[in-house]
Design goal:
Helices cover 26% and strands 23% of the residues. By secondary structure, the chain is α/β, with parallel strands linked by helices. It has 2 domains: 118 residues, 3-Layer(aba) Sandwich (Rossmann fold), CATH 3.40.50; 289 residues, Ribonuclease Z/Hydroxyacylglutathione hydrolase-like (Metallo-beta-lactamase, Chain A), CATH 3.60.15. The longest helix is centred in the last third of the chain and has 17 residues.
Length: 440
């Protein structure tokens, strides 16, 4: 009587094989894992081995390799079964000289027909056929994509001070700050750093020709992309430029000087688009269709504003230049709600409280900040304090220092997380990068 060893952890399947008609013609033994196979080979000495590919404790291919390497078992008949019908598995099994590759699940009667053929005339492996695609009416592909609404924020530039380029800046990008906030046809642009140039190229085909640009302040990194904004050269466009009231000259005067022929070939008065300049003041919201922009003075040299964007039922804080807790270098855990330092910043803390997301700079590590007090930018630890007292749950860091490479910024991200953890602050943090798009 021919002896067959069944090596499969599926007890139900083994039970079906042993209970099927015709099983009396063979003598069966079973093994539940790879180690048992070799014990049974020695004791039972089968004529045929049926083995599952993913056998516990030892992969089926490894078992077969050892069997073929042993003089006593190298000629043993082997049927390899697998639910994983992949071409790599098939070829690996064929290279080890199996007699048949059996796809699971299979009919028990078909299994017995293979046994009969093996002992009567021998088995020839069938060619590999990949899994057939089920008819479309029998299966529906799960496609868990988020429904893309009409409201989003898009970062067109995330650098501060000056733009950068090179292989070490590929991940986070090198354009200076520019943010697009959109709700359907309503559009708000915040800051006109070099990131506004690629944004402008996308707006040339837009039907709505009235564009609103909000400037946090007029430092170079926030306005240097303005002359390269394509809609400026569209005679049908109307650009409304909102900016804080400066200490010296108006924004229109500054732009006129910036576009003198000595600096640029097109003067402000020669721009084809219609230009309007409007003042922004602390605490005076401006509504552009379904988008409302609120403002608050920032801790930064000159007249500088932070923003709060109300869009699609959400509130997003946005501050690229804001030196929180000027000159503080200590542990954030040492600062309590009752601290005079916190009370001095209570107005801006309340301004950002309740934001669903806060986009806020943290340009310097604590060590870097020691040499940059008064420059108008926060350390990571001091910006963390703002998140703590404003109860921010989602923080995106922008206005990256131009000296900080991709590698530096990834290390800083880890530092952000460690400081938040050390302060026991439940807040998710990530870094903004050029072309990052957040659906609201």
């Amino acid at each position: 009587m021919h002896k067959i060893l069944l090596a499969d952890p599926d007890q139900e399947l083994i039970g079906q094989i042993l209970g099927a008609p015709g099983h009396e013609a063979y003598l069966f033994e079973k093994a539940l894992n790879g180690e048992e196979v070799f014990d049974k080979l020695e004791q039972f000495q089968p004529d045929l081995l049926y083995i599952d590919l993913l056998l516990p404790k030892m992969h089926g291919i490894e078992v077969i390799k050892k069997i073929r390497a042993h003089p006593k078992s190298k000629d043993l008949g082997i049927i390899l079964a697998s639910k994983s019908s992949m071409i790599q598995n098939f070829h690996a099994a064929m290279e080890e000289g199996i007699d048949f590759f059996l796809k699971k699940p299979f009919e028990i009667a078909y299994f017995y027909s293979l046994i009969h053929r093996f002992f009567e005339s021998g088995l020839t492996p069938a060619p590999f056929h990949p899994e057939t695609e089920p008819p479309s009416n029998e299966i529906q592909t799960y496609d868990p994509h988020k429904e893309k609404g009409e409201a989003y924020l898009k970062f067109w530039g995330t650098r501060g001070s000056n733009p950068v380029a090179g292989p070490e800046y590929i991940r986070f990008g090198g354009n200076t700050v520019c943010l697009e906030a959109r709700h359907g046809d309503d559009l708000v642009i915040i800051d006109a750093g070099t990131g506004i140039r690629p944004l402008g190229d996308t707006l040339l085909s837009q039907k709505e020709k009235t564009l609103h640009i909000f400037l946090s302040h007029t430092h170079w990194d926030h306005v240097t992309g303005f002359p390269f904004f394509a809609p400026l050269y569209d005679p049908d466009a109307h650009l409304v430029i909102w900016s804080p009231v400066g200490f010296e000259k108006s924004t229109k005067e500054l732009f006129t000087e910036m576009l003198a022929y000595s600096y640029f070939p097109v003067r402000l008065e020669d721009m084809k688009a219609k230009l309007s300049f409007k003042d922004l003041r602390d605490g005076h919201p401006v509504s552009i269709g379904n988008i409302t922009v609120d403002t608050h003075y920032a801790f930064h040299p000159g007249a500088t504003l932070c923003f709060k964007i109300h869009i699609n039922g959400k509130t997003v804080g946005y501050a690229t230049d804001n030196e929180m807790f000027l000159g503080y270098h200590g542990n954030p855990n040492s600062v309590s709600q009752e601290s005079s330092m916190v009370k001095d910043h209570q107005s801006i803390i309340e301004f950002f409280s309740g934001c669903d997301t806060l986009i806020h700079e943290a340009q310097y590590t604590p060590l870097e900040y020691q040499r940059r007090v008064g420059w108008g930018h926060s350390s990571i630890s001091n910006a963390t304090l703002l998140c703590k007292f404003a109860k921010i749950k989602d923080w995106i860091v922008t206005h990256h220092d131009p000296k900080h490479t991709d590698e530096d910024l990834l290390e800083h991200l880890q530092l952000h997380k460690e400081i938040l953890h050390d302060c026991n602050i439940s807040c998710q943090v990530d870094l903004a990068f050029d072309q990052l798009k957040l659906f609201i």
